[in-house]
Write a structure and sequence with these properties.
Helices cover 80% and strands 0% of the residues. The chain is mainly alpha-helical.
């Protein structure tokens, strides 16, 4: 019981001491304690002190130290959006120096860490890829280059999975007009996608169904698109298990084109 009570008293005393520190006008003490908290990894307590000190010491000799500490504190507290912004500013301020390169990498790395799950909006993922590529372009001999490429591959995998899921969703919903657009975009944006053969088949199938079910004024154009998609599958995957299916589609589309030509001539 004494131990528990003693621990509570110590915790309460510690909290009171920290609260008094925050309210104190003793700037040298705040600077000393901010450094102490930061270097022992107590970023939660360091952060509010650093926010105040960054304003007070702007333009001074310790300004750079405080700015880097503040950026790394945001990073360690998983405030990646804020940290990326802070490191970006530092990269500009220290451009041409090793500290500038360090900040530039941390800016790109925080963008990478701020990328959401693939099912969510992927604007941050696209920004992260752009940021990593800019770092690679600017520091091609950096020790971080391999990591940057690995991060970019992981981010592209996320975008690929998102694109694939969206295309499949519209195909399964039988919204074949949207499906053809998304399938084409996925095949263009991710030419090495593992499911390429299957997606080419789905593209031909979607165009085929659009052709058959379209109004007459749209059929000719969509028939041509079906035949082009079928030919692309046969050209890229001549041994594909979908060859018989697309050949059947092709025969149906050629017959439809013949009927359309007959109607047009009459």
């Amino acid at each position: 019981m004494f131990c528990a009570s003693g621990c509570i008293v110590m915790l309460s005393t510690s909290c009171d001491s920290y609260s008094r520190l925050l309210k104190s006008n003793d700037i040298p003490l705040k600077l000393s304690k901010a450094r102490e908290y930061y270097h022992r990894g107590d970023y939660y307590r360091a952060q509010p002190l650093l926010e105040e000190l960054n304003t007070l010491f702007r333009g001074s000799e310790v300004a750079g130290e405080l700015q880097f500490m503040s950026a790394y504190t945001s990073y360690h507290e998983r405030g990646y959006e804020l940290a990326s912004f802070q490191f970006q500013q530092l990269a500009t301020s220290y451009a041409g120096s090793s500290r500038g390169e360090e900040a530039a990498f941390m800016h790109a790395y925080c963008l990478y860490l701020n990328s959401p799950e693939y099912g969510l909006d992927q604007k941050n993922t696209e920004s992260a890829i752009e940021g990593l590529q800019l770092y690679i372009n600017k520091y091609p001999k950096s020790a971080h280059i391999a990591d940057c490429h690995r991060f970019m591959d992981l981010l592209r995998d996320k975008l690929e999975k998102k694109a694939l899921d969206r295309a499949m969703l519209f195909y399964q919903m039988e919204d074949h007009r949207a499906a053809t657009a998304l399938l084409k975009r996925t095949l263009t944006d991710f030419p090495d996608i593992a499911q390429r053969e299957y997606l080419l088949y789905l593209l031909a199938d979607s165009y085929h169904k659009l052709s058959v079910n379209s109004i007459q004024t749209k059929q000719a154009e969509r028939c041509t698109a079906t035949l082009q998609a079928a030919d692309q599958l046969k050209e890229e995957f001549p041994e594909s298990k979908y060859i018989k299916s697309v050949e059947k589609m092709t025969r149906e589309i050629v017959a439809l084109q013949s009927r359309l030509n007959t109607t047009a001539s009459n």
